[in-house]
């Protein structure tokens, strides 16, 4: 007796109904079978979330547009100055790169600080803005307002992309709910709001750090790519060499867990490093005119020789006692709570934060912006804290949002706005004054208090008090700004012995007015404009900025 197929025997044993059904399927002629389309709302929502229809940057298009719109609003709601480097290490350099070569018959159009003469800074980051300036110039749209705002809007767009990358990463590592809380913490952080649209190398370092973290090999990540993340880390190092400090624990972890260690180094890290460094060397060779390894010079001056301490020093514990709590703001209790609750796989994030704070604490010169790149790591713990709150979640959200918005709007619209507002007055002097050819400006303020030609865009003769550090080792070395503030009146009379050399306009902080008043009266200077600057004046920085104009008989300069 021939043996029957095993599947048929099994169906017959299970019952007659099953056997008849199975035979019916076998005897049915070959034809296409129509499957019922599932119309469940849950099924469709899951299908949409996993698909790519209507997505941008891997996320819902409405979320992307919302984030971009928020950062654009963020950009226009930050109208204050933070530190000189947001202009003097980016926009001023870019303006010098673009326009000094275009207007060769003008000798004083643009200025580079001492770091560029000593080749401590690279041209890679300013080249982004110089390219924007060049495009605007070719289109005939390089008005001063566009030169000011377009670079900041470009930085805002990059920051928005980084925000979305952080959200996507947390959605992979955890779930959408945790990702939303991390995203909320990131968007409402007052310090992120304050910095993320500024043209600072620290801002670009933070953008590259978040994006690199998206491709970093973390447990649960679907987009891990060693070449992509190491390329972004290398680019961050090219732009700001100290960026490597934050990545040391992460790179060591990757190397330790990688089974094919030699392949990782020889076929990924070394090629990426070689290409990126070559790219930087070629750019700097073009603009410096000689081969220069600016990353080595930067680390030698700022880390090994500690030249940065010339611009101020703080005690070793400053980041832990003041810097880090101030930057985190009201996120601090949620960060601590999140550190206690977060899974062990996030321990590497906490190690990265502590490691970065410890290393930067060893350097005497400290600034809030130096630790800005660790904030996204902190937001992960803050979001995890909010996700686990039950009873006090709504009050906590209200507290976080309102407190951060107060600090964000105050620091973005009020605190230290005078040094930007006064540039508007200089712009009016350039474009509305019929006697512009005879106008000149002297800024008697702490050096680099204001932007320069990137915010004027006119070859107006301007001067400010210099403050390059001593690179020769003199014990009694004093910069021009220090000499001026020792005796401002004496400095003015010595500097301007001839009336013909007097500038037509003086810009000073209010605290200086009384001390130099005899000079102002004797040389017929009159106050023509007042700008609010800060509610917290310091030793050399006043609450207001005054503009003085020299008024002569028979010659009235229009402002």
**Portion of residues within helices:** 55-70%
Termini separation (Å)? 114 Å
Extended strand count: 7
Overall pLDDT confidence: 87
Q: Unreliable runs, pLDDT <50, ≥5 residues?
A: 1-53
Arrangement of strands in the largest sheet = 4-3-5-7-6
- Report strand %: 5-15%
Structural class: mainly alpha
Mind telling me the C-alpha Rg? Answer: 30 Å
Q: How would you describe the shape?
A: globular
- How is the main sheet built? 5 strands, mixed
Count, helices: 24
Number of domains: 2
Family: Belongs to the glycosyltransferase 22 family.
Enzyme class: transferase
Membrane topology: Multi-pass membrane protein
EC number: 2.4.1.-
Brief write-up:
This protein has 559 residues and is mainly α.
Task: Explain this structure.
- This is Mannosyltransferase.
- Belongs to the glycosyltransferase 22 family.
- Keywords: Endoplasmic reticulum, Glycosyltransferase, Membrane, Transferase, Transmembrane, Transmembrane helix.
- GO terms for molecular function: alpha-1,2-mannosyltransferase activity.
- The structure is a single chain.
- The chain contains 24 helices and 7 strands.
- With 559 residues, it is mainly alpha-helical.
- The protein folds into 2 domains: 354 residues, no CATH class; 134 residues, no CATH class.
- The strands form 2 sheets. The chain has a 5-stranded mixed sheet with strand order 4-3-5-7-6. A two-stranded antiparallel ribbon has the order 1-2.
- Strand 1 and strand 2 form a beta hairpin.
- The longest helix has 30 residues.
- The radius of gyration is 30 Å and the shape is globular.
């Amino acid at each position: 007796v021939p043996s029957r197929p095993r599947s048929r025997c099994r169906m017959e044993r299970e019952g007659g109904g099953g056997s008849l059904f199975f035979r019916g399927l076998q005897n049915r002629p070959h034809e296409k079978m129509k499957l019922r389309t599932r119309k469940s709302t849950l099924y469709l929502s899951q299908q949409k979330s996993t698909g790519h229809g209507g997505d941008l940057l891997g996320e819902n298009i409405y979320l992307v547009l919302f984030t971009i719109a928020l950062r654009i609003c963020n950009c226009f709601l930050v109208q204050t100055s933070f530190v000189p480097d947001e202009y003097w290490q980016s926009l001023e350099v870019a303006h010098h790169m673009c326009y000094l070569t275009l207007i060769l018959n003008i000798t004083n159009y643009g200025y580079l600080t001492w770091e560029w003469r000593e080749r401590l800074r690279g041209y890679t980051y300013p080249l982004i803005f110089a390219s924007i300036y060049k495009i605007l110039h070719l289109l005939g749209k390089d008005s001063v307002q566009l030169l000011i705002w377009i670079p900041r809007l470009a930085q805002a767009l990059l920051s928005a992309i980084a925000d979305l990358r952080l959200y996507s990463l947390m959605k992979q590592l955890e779930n959408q709910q945790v990702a939303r809380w991390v995203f909320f913490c990131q968007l409402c952080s007052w310090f992120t709001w304050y910095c993320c649209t500024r043209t600072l190398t620290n801002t670009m370092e933070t953008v590259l750090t978040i994006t690199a973290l998206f491709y970093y090999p973390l447990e649960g990540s679907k987009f891990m790519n060693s070449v992509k993340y190491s390329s972004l880390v290398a680019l961050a190092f090219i732009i700001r060499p100290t960026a490597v400090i934050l990545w040391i624990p992460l790179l060591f972890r990757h190397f330790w867990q990688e089974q094919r260690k030699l392949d990782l180094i020889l076929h990924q890290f070394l090629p990426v490093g070689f290409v990126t460094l070559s790219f930087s060397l070629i750019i700097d060779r073009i603009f410096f005119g000689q081969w220069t390894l600016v990353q080595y010079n930067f680390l030698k001056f700022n880390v090994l020789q500690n030249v940065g301490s010339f611009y101020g020093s703080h005690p070793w514990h400053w980041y832990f006692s003041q810097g880090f709590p101030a930057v985190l703001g009201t996120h601090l209790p949620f960060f601590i709570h999140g550190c206690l609750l977060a899974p062990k796989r996030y321990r590497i994030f906490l190690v990265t934060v502590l490691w970065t704070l410890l290393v930067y604490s060893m350097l005497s010169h400290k600034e809030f912006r130096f630790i800005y790149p660790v904030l996204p790591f902190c937001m992960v713990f803050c979001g995890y804290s909010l996700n686990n709150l039950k009873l006090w979640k709504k009050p906590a959200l209200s507290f976080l949002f309102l407190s951060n918005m107060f600090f964000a709007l105050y620091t973005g619209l009020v605190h230290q706005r005078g040094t930007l507002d006064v540039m508007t007055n200089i712009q009016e002097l350039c474009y509305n004054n019929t006697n512009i050819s005879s106008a000149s400006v002297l800024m008697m303020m702490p050096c680099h208090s204001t932007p320069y030609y990137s915010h004027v865009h006119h070859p107006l003769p301007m001067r400010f008090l210099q403050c390059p550090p001593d690179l020769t080792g003199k014990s009694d070395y004093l910069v021009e700004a220090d000499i001026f503030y020792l005796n401002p009146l004496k400095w003015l009379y010595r500097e301007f012995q001839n009336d013909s050399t007097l500038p037509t306009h003086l810009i000073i902080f209010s605290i200086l007015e009384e001390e130099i008043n005899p000079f102002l009266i004797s040389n017929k200077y009159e106050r023509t404009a007042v700008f609010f600057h800060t509610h917290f004046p310091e030793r050399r920085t006043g609450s207001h900025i005054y503009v003085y104009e020299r008024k002569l008989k028979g010659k009235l300069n229009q402002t």
